Task: inverse folding
């Protein structure tokens, strides 16, 4: 019985306030229809792309010196990097200036706070996020569907340009470092070359291994000539049958072989032929100077090859983004949903008026003047 009385009370309140509820809902209906019709239609265009793997710009991968499976799509770090670039003021200001959005948004560009409000307005209509397939979706809303598509594509291209520029800036820093290092190593190589030439001239050693073999062969031949001529002299000297000219010839050959051995074993005069003694004293210093020069030359050659590879990589037009879908003008508006606005406004007006009616009925017996006193 109590529930029935309560229900009758609710219905009674609604009946007594029916005109107020009706009028309020009617006003809300007319007002919301007017507002909904006054609101501009917004169209949304979306472009989808993946970041490229940064390793694709490395010289090792371009020239096939990296033993690694090529991954063309970027990692989560590459995605985060592109998202940061997309959210930067550089991209936003580029869009504001390129598409004259100050005028389009009816914002005074000459005012001190104009750029702040223009950025804020653009960011409300500009969304860049990672979707469930780890691709990046860039969306822009505007009242002009073609303009929205053009802006979305332009934003993607600007993000790609900035990402490429950052990579090329890093490469430029590496090139500058290599350039300074190559200059230093070139000067060092020249110094080592001068040192090698000086020690070679000092000891008259220019082809260590070949000269050593030649000196060894010359000493062996001199020793053999000495032994052979001595043996001949012992056999033939004093024999009356042998002519004196023959004996003198053998003695002369012996003296020549002994002199040659002496020259090979003693210090040679400056500018003279290389001796074994000079060779043994100088070959160590010449070998060390030659090894240092060869190592410096090889390292410089490696650095020059690496330097040229980085230059070639920097000159390569390597896209930072791989586009999956370009933005196209939307065929249907994204908002406003006018029917939902009207239904929501009428429903809110009905509930608010109903609440006011219940509140008024609940406290209609209260003497507010007495409470005030």
Result:
């Amino acid at each position: 019985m109590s529930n029935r009385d309560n229900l009758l009370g609710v219905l009674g309140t609604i009946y007594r306030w029916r005109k107020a509820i009706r009028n309020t809902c009617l006003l809300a209906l007319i007002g919301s229809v007017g507002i909904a019709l006054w609101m501009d239609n917004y169209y949304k265009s979306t472009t989808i792309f993946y970041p490229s793997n940064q390793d694709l710009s490395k010289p090792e991968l371009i020239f096939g010196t990296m033993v690694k499976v090529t991954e063309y799509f970027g990692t989560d770090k590459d995605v985060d990097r592109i998202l940061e670039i997309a959210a930067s003021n550089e991209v936003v200001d580029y869009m504001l200036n390129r598409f004259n959005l100050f005028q389009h948004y009816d914002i005074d560009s000459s005012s001190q706070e104009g750029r702040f409000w223009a950025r804020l307005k653009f960011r409300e209509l500009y969304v860049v996020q990672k979707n469930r397939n780890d691709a990046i979706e860039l969306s822009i809303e505007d009242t002009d569907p073609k303009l929205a598509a053009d802006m979305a594509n332009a934003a993607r291209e600007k993000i790609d340009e900035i990402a490429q520029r950052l990579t090329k800036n890093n490469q430029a820093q590496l090139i500058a470092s290599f350039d300074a290092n190559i200059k230093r190593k070139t000067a060092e190589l020249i110094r080592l070359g001068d040192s090698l030439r000086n020690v070679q001239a000092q000891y008259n050693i220019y082809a260590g291994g070949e000269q050593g073999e030649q000196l060894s062969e010359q000493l062996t031949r001199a020793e053999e000539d000495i032994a052979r001529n001595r043996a001949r002299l012992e056999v033939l000297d004093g024999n009356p049958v042998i002519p004196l000219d023959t004996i003198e010839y053998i003695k002369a050959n012996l003296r020549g072989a002994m002199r040659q051995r002496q020259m090979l074993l003693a210090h040679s005069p400056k500018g003279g032929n290389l001796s074994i003694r000079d060779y043994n004293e100088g070959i160590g210093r010449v070998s060390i100077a030659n090894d240092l020069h060869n190592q410096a030359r090889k390292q410089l050659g490696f650095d020059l090859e690496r330097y040229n590879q980085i230059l070639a990589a920097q000159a390569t037009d390597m896209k930072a983004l791989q586009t999956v879908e370009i933005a196209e003008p939307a065929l249907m508006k994204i908002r406003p949903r006018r029917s939902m606005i009207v239904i929501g406004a009428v429903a809110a007006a009905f509930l608010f008026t109903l609440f006011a009616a219940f509140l008024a009925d609940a406290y209609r017996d209260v003497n507010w003047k007495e409470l005030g006193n």
Observations:
- The two ends are 39 Å apart (CA to CA).
- The chain has a mean pLDDT of 79.
- Strands lie at 43-51, 126-130, 136-142, 321-325.
